[in-house]
Structures are given as C-alpha cells and as structure tokens.
Amino acid sequence: MLEKNVTPMLAQYHRIKNEYPDALVLYRLGDFYEMFYEDAYTGARDLNIALTRKKVGKSQYIPMCGIPYHAADSYISRLVSKGHKVAI
C-alpha cells in the first residue's frame, strides 16, 4: 500500500489508516471526505458513488472516491448500517 516518495498528505493518511486498519478512513480534502485504496473500492460500491483515481507519481495512480463534507452524516450512516466502522 505504501508507495515510494509519498506526498505529506498521503504519508499522513497512511499513519491514520495504520491506527484504524479495520475502519474506512474518511480523509478531509477541501470540501470532500476522500477514501483511498481498498477503502475507496468499498466506499464506492456500498455508497453507489464514482470510483476515481488520484495521481501520486509520474504514471502512478491510486483508487479514490469522495463524498461532500456537508452531506457526510447521511453517507456515514449508510456505511455504518452496512456494518462498516468509519474513522474521520
């Protein structure tokens, strides 16, 4: 999961994910909470939202999906109702 030469943002995300490995981590970036890697696949599937990708190198991408921060409560409720733990 950890790429070489990650950005400070991704390094912070990895530290948080390591603290909460059994939770879907919602990481705030601007007006969105983003999920990355396996969390993105799960979030996109269970919330029926678009799975996209984030560029992390010259030609390297990681899976990503996001939800608007102002609507996070309803999305989080949906994830919890499907049995997921969520870390913000």
- Mean pLDDT comes to 93
Quickly give the structural class: alpha+beta
* Extended strand count: 6
- Low-pLDDT segments: none
Strand line-up across the major sheet: 2-3-5-4
Order of helices and strands: HEEEHEEHE
Major pleated sheet: 4 strands, antiparallel
Strand content: 25-35%
What can you tell me about this protein's structure?
- The chain is 38% helix and 30% strand.
- The protein has 88 residues and is an alpha+beta fold.
- The strands form 2 sheets. It has a 4-stranded antiparallel sheet with strand order 2-3-5-4.
- A hairpin with a 5-residue loop joins strand 4 and strand 5.
- The longest helix has 12 residues, at 8-19.
- The protein is globular, with a radius of gyration of 12 Å.
In short:
The chain is α+β, with helices and mostly antiparallel strands and 88 residues long.
Topology, element by element:
Layout: H1 8-19, E1 23-25, E2 27-29, E3 32-36, H2 37-47, E4 52-55, E5 61-68, H3 72-81, E6 85-87
Parallel strand pairs: 1-6
Antiparallel strand pairs: 2-3, 3-5, 4-5
Features:
single chain, 88 residues, alpha+beta, four-stranded antiparallel sheet, two-stranded parallel sheet, 3 helices, globular
